[in-house]
Each structure stands twice: as structure tokens, then as C-alpha cells.
Write a structure and sequence with these properties.
It is a single chain. With 119 residues, the protein is an all-beta fold. Helix content is 0%, strand content 51%.
Length: 119
């Protein structure tokens, strides 16, 4: 069993930066692929990006490329989403997710953290 707890959300002005953190519990966390998703009001949850179980590979949605960076610290059981050049369209609840099979589906989810970008 893996539990995920996000933190770091808040209110930021357009053009600003924010780093989200995801604390994971569970002995097998280090073997899981980890991802970030977001859900804006009135919209479906969408993929933001993910990092491989080793941390050696990352991939992103087009909306995140060049602005967001995902990293993981296995020693601390942490995953991070560094966001920069934020725009109002990035406003959403951001969720951390874990994939025990490394290739889908995402089987563990956090509760989410709100990010609001003001114009």
C-alpha cells in the first residue's frame, strides 16, 4: 500500500514559480513510476508529467514542456513538480499519482493541492 500526500500549492502571480511536493509512504515506492495530474474547475483530470521508477526518464504533456520539471528523491520518498512561467490556465488541483506496474494504470492517488495563478 502506498499513501501520497501533496503539498506546496498556493496562490502565485502569472510568471511566477511554485514547487509542489509529494510525500510517499510504503516500502515499494522506489519501484513505482510517479506522475502528476491536474484538474481545473469544470474540466477532466489531465496528465501533466511523469518520472520513471529509476528517475532516469521524465516525460511531459505539451502544456508542461519547457516550464515544468519532475524529479524524485528515493532516499526521502519524495517526488517534486517544479513549475515556472506559470499562467492562469495552470490553475487547478494538482494530484500526485503512483503506478505500481510502471506502465499503467495509475493505482494510487493523493488528495491534491490547489494551485491558483492570478493574472
Amino acid at each position: 500500500q502506498v499513501q501520497l500526500v501533496e503539498s506546496g500549492g498556493g496562490l502565485v502571480q502569472a510568471g511566477g514559480s511554485l514547487r509542489l511536493s509529494c510525500a510517499a509512504s510504503g516500502r515499494t515506492f522506489s519501484t513505482y513510476r510517479m506522475g502528476w495530474f491536474r484538474q481545473a474547475p469544470g474540466k477532466e483530470r489531465e496528465f501533466v508529467g511523469a518520472v520513471s521508477w529509476s528517475g532516469g526518464s521524465t516525460y511531459y504533456a505539451d502544456s508542461a514542456k519547457g516550464r515544468f520539471t519532475i524529479s524524485r528523491d528515493k532516499a526521502k520518498n519524495m517526488v517534486y513538480l517544479q513549475m515556472s512561467s506559470l499562467i492562469p490556465e495552470d490553475t487547478a488541483v494538482y494530484y500526485c499519482a503512483a503506478d505500481s506496474n510502471r506502465s499503467g494504470p495509475w493505482d494510487y492517488w493523493g488528495q491534491g493541492t490547489q494551485v491558483t495563478v492570478s493574472s
